[in-house]
Write a structure and sequence with these properties.
Blueprint: E1 6-16, E2 19-27, E3 44-46, H1 53-65, E4 74-80, E5 86-93, E6 106-110, E7 118-122, E8 124-131, H2 132-138, H3 144-153
Parallel strand pairs: 1-5
Antiparallel strand pairs: 1-2, 1-3, 2-8, 4-5, 6-7
Length: about 160
Amino acid sequence: MGRRKISAGLLMYRVRQGALEVFIGHPGGPLFARKDDGHWTIPKGQIDNGEEPLDAAIREFAEETGLTARAPYRELGMVRQRSGKIVHGWAFLGDHDDSVPIKSNLFALEWPPHSGKYRNFPEIDRAQFFTTQEARRKLKDAQVAFVDRLEAWGGWKVE
């Protein structure tokens, strides 16, 4: 039996005009080039052996966005995606100018398939803030729970 994949990620949030917005990324590479709604994700990645999930989430956020996450972190629990992958999530307050491109790490993929040629693609090709309503449409189904849990927490509200 194969080892179940476990990932950890961060959901950066901000408040604009009293509304909660979340920062999510679009997966890079040719397989997702024409896919949008239902395919975006929180910046996340696999947990290394012996690594604490929150440490992995912080590392992966930096690798996939080029941005630095800052404590405090709000635990959002875990979700199980359709693939069976388990994703642990945390939220933190932060900001980024959406007009400034992110700097994501790269992965190699044989492209075109069966060509013997490998090309490098960014893990996340773009990322930006969305309202929670927009994010629910953009995110993978299972990850919508992270937005729901962040909203339910309410600690983001400005009095």
